[in-house]
Amino acid sequence: MIRRFASYYRPYRKLFIIDFSCAVGAGLLELAFPVAVNKFIDDLLPGQDWPLILIACVALLAIYALNTVMQYIVTYWGHMLGINIETDMRKKMFDHIQKLSFRFFDNNKTGHLIGRITNDLNDIGEMAHHGPEDIFIAVMTLVGAFILMADINLKLAIITFVIVPIMAWVIIYFGRNMTTTYRQLFGNVGNFNARIEDNVGGIRVVQSFANEDHEKELFAVDNQMFRRTKLLAYKIMAKSLSVTYMMTRLITVLVMISGAWFFIQGELAIGEFVAFILLSNVFFRPIEKINAVIESYPKGIAGFRRYLEIIDTEPEISDKPDAVDVNALRGDIAFQNVTFGYDQQRPVLKGISLNVKAGETVAFVGPSGAGKTTICSLLPRFYDVTGGAITVDGIDIRDLKLTSLRKQIGIVQQDVFLFSGTIRENIAYGKLDAQLPEIWEAARRAHLEELIQNLPEGMETVIGERGVKLSGGQKQRLAIARMFLKNPPILILDEATSALDTETEAAIQQSLSELSVGRTTLVIAHRLTTIKNADRIIVVNEDGIAEQGRHDELVNAGGIYSRLHQVQFNA
Ligand code: ADP
Ligand code: MG
């Protein structure tokens, strides 16, 4: 783990070296100060040589000035190093999440992912900046102070040194507890992020059920969990603070007594005694810093571990090394004995075989849960087939580059996902570099032109989060406009009009028919009126494809479809 962490320093080698040298320099000056005091009192004062004393003071001032510059560099450049690393990690995590597959998102809550990218990485920068230099300086200070103290009086130095093993134990013991606690705390933050995400995202449902009290209780539980874990962290901090404080004071008293004894024995001069006490303070400084260390590094470590969990999640679906880029697919689709299940135990598709010619419109009907949406999700490789194969233009879709496959498939679903932005931005999502005239053309073909023209802000109207300021029909039209812009050879319409009233549906149906001209189209619909004109209708049930043919053929065949037809038209 340390090596992986260290690899993030690579782009900032220079920054690291400068910051590290300054930190070490400042640490050395701290060490030199008590020695200077010793010399000042024992050597310079008795001589009563004013010019020499003044020179010493000017030298001291120069050293302080140098230290100021180094402190500035450590504080600003050092933190720059930290924040650069933190930013890199955030970017890497976000980029990686873009690659992860549907199944990952099926199983992970949005709130948790947001927590990992934001909260959990917050302290990484601090750790990246202070970590290496603090450890180095602590060791350097301890060793340096010990040597200088031993130089004054070895026995006294050994007495002081007793604190080191005790403190090493404190760091390891409390540090471990703290890391575990912070891991838990980050989980808690994830939980309430997820809770807030669910609640605010679904606030309209919450309020329409008048279930606010229920939601408050759920949130209160997560909030209390957070409080409890955070308290645990403070408790660990308080304990380690107390142990450290008590130990250092105990040693100080021990040094006073032994120092006094050695002084009386004539083994220690006054200046040496003062210098020793000053040095022991320098010696204790890294030890007293342990508390900050025990707070912030476990946070960083816990966050880094949670970061690695995401980075180490391999995308389930990705490009083969020799995947090919095909920029203009015709749109011949074949399912060859395709089997698939979201989990091993429960197969959803058990051997689907199907050929769709380029430009053909094929409709799927069948009971809810039969696997119609699943069939359509396999084509853009949202999930990979468990058995058999799917080909487009005779090429196994697993041999195609994912982007080249997905750029050529357009999907319009029942619930359209719109981004919180303007109408223009949402239409242009179909083609990011689209120019305004193209966007208007797409809007016109989706029969949105008039609506947009009547809005005071036109194309620049903000449609609210997920398009709440639009009606169902308008959202669907926006999704269609997006498709006109994207202009894919293959189109999937999954219950695109099912949520709409009959009148709106009929109007939108018109746009969809225009959209599907010249494209291979897979339509899923439960209202048979919308698919009557399909080139072929496929009836799917739990066992797979039950019937297929044209509308009239199926009605006359007297099977499932004809019964469905009777229910919908003669009821
Ligand atoms: P249809 O579109 O025909 O109504 P689906 O293809 O959506 O049916 O679903 C087929 C079966 O797969 C259902 O039993 C459903 O519960 C299950 N299913 C659908 N999506 C998922 C998913 N993301 N994870 C696990 N199971 C799923
Ligand atoms: Mg479905």
Automatic annotation (TrEMBL):
Membrane topology note? Multi-pass membrane protein
Any one GO molecular-function label of the UniProt entry: ATP hydrolysis activity
Query: Start and end of every ABC transporter domain?
Result: 333-567
- Locate the ABC transmembrane type-1 domain: which residues? 17-299
What this protein is called in its record is ABC transporter ATP-binding protein
Tell me a GO cellular component.
plasma membrane
Q: Which UniProt keywords apply?
A: ATP-binding, Membrane, Nucleotide-binding, Transmembrane, Transmembrane helix, Transport
Tell me the InterPro entries matching this sequence: AAA+_ATPase, ABC1_TM_dom, ABC1_TM_sf, ABC_transporter-like_ATP-bd, ABC_transporter-like_CS, P-loop_NTPase, Type_1_exporter
The domain of life for this entry's organism is Bacteria
| Cellular localisation | Cell membrane
Gene3D superfamilies, A to Z:
ABC transporter type 1, transmembrane domain, P-loop containing nucleotide triphosphate hydrolases
Membrane-crossing segments per the record: 12-33, 53-74, 134-150, 156-175, 243-264
Q: Which PANTHER family match?
A: ATP-BINDING CASSETTE SUB-FAMILY B MEMBER 10, MITOCHONDRIAL, ATP-DEPENDENT PERMEASE MDL1, MITOCHONDRIAL
Q: Which organism is it from?
A: Paenibacillus agri
- This protein's major location comes to membrane
What SMART domains does the annotation carry? AAA (SM00382)
